[in-house]
Specification:
Length: 368
């Protein structure tokens, strides 16, 4: 029995009806598993901040980038296939519970594994959506095999956003959507996921409840889709969830007063707990989009946004740590979650629910 599978089975016993699971799982461990963070460096050692977080704070996952946005540098974590393979192996070697290792390999203009660094590129979603499902599945399989060979186990793809606004700064203009037709997005999105799954790579679909009708970019500030979003944008997410293909769902930072008059989707119990969990029936891992994006960071601040996201129903907090760099970013959020439990803003049981979803997802990594 693998170490991770043992941990999962042990925790399942703790979570059985009548068990005092919240009293038996360490808050520090659970909080750490709920954080996925970015870091600097083509290699790591015992002195690296990310290694400190893995060892001392039980970091649940990491995300790799090819470029360092804050430094405006083409060097961040990805230089060549061999280098990435060594880096990820080192990271996993420091982890007592295996890490989720994710990357944005959507294809086209949003892919971190590029030809210039020795990788095979992935076609854009828009070009795939204009073709056959067989070609899309093959593209997903090729991307997945390349990711798996490097040590990645999660792709932050595909985008299930419907290109309602074809010139939208974040989705349409970057060719990140398969189509302006929800059914086409659903079909090609699921085909791409099946390709990833054939290579043993998990898929995190995004950006719930739909970013395709947005004109603005949540990296830069608040984006309001109140008057452009329609329920047709839920179709691809609904179909992927019903087919059991959505391993994880990433939230959008968009604001929609018709869904929540106060909070953006990432921080909204109505959107995450109501729309995604109850209406669509999703029971897997919910991952936030990068909490350092200005749509949430400017208004709420990182620590407060992290606590609010968990209160809303998010399981894993993504800290890209790339738009702005802080070697202590994971420590800050970890501390915020622990303090929120101590202050009664979050319960141990709430953290245990998220931790178990994450561990159960990780248990699937042991499968061939």
């Amino acid at each position: 029995m693998s170490r991770l599978l043992f941990v999962v089975l042990f925790c399942l016993v703790l979570l059985a009806p009548g068990s005092a699971c919240a009293e038996n799982l360490s808050v520090e461990y659970m909080a750490g598993q709920m954080i996925m963070a970015g870091f600097r460096g083509l290699d790591v050692d015992e002195t690296s901040p990310v290694v400190r977080d893995i060892r001392e704070r039980h970091l649940g996952g990491v995300i790799l980038f090819d470029r360092d946005v804050a430094l405006k540098s083409p060097v961040r974590n990805i230089q060549s296939p061999d280098q990435v393979r060594r880096l990820i192996a080192r990271l996993q070697g420091y982890a007592r519970t295996p890490l989720l290792v994710g990357v944005d390999q959507e294809g086209g203009r949003v892919q971190r594994l590029k030809a210039e660094n020795g990788f095979a590129e992935t076609p854009s979603a828009r070009s795939l959506g204009a073709g056959t499902l067989a070609v899309t599945m093959l593209a997903g399989a090729k991307a997945g095999q390349q990711l798996r060979n490097c040590g990645f186990n999660m792709d932050f793809a595909p985008c299930l956003d419907v290109a309602v606004a074809p010139d939208g700064a974040a989705i349409g203009a970057l060719d990140r959507s398969f189509s302006s037709e929800p059914e086409i997005v659903a079909a090609h999105g699921m085909a791409f996921i099946e390709g990833l799954h054939s290579a043993g790579v998990l898929a995190c679909v995004k950006h719930f409840p739909g970013h395709g009708s947005a004109v603005g970019d949540t990296h830069l500030g608040v984006v309001d889709v109140t008057h452009t979003w329609t329920r047709s944008e839920l179709v691809p997410f609904r179909q992927a969830v019903e087919a059991g293909l959505a391993d994880a769902v990433m939230t959008a930072h968009v604001f929609n007063a018709n869904l929540d008059p106060e909070r953006p989707a990432t921080l909204s119990p109505d959107v995450l707990g109501g729309l995604l969990r109850k209406e669509l029936g999703f029971s897997g891992v919910v991952i936030t989009d990068d909490l350092d994006m200005r749509a949430v960071a400017d208004r709420y601040g990182l620590e407060r946004a992290a606590v609010m996201a968990v209160q809303a129903g998010a399981d894993m907090l993504l800290l890209g740590n790339n738009l702005r760099y802080d070697p202590d970013v994971a420590a800050r959020v970890h501390g915020a979650l622990v303090r929120a439990v101590e202050a009664g803003e979050l319960t141990r049981k709430r953290l245990a629910e998220s931790c178990m979803r994450i561990l159960c997802l990780k248990a699937r990594l042991d499968r061939p």
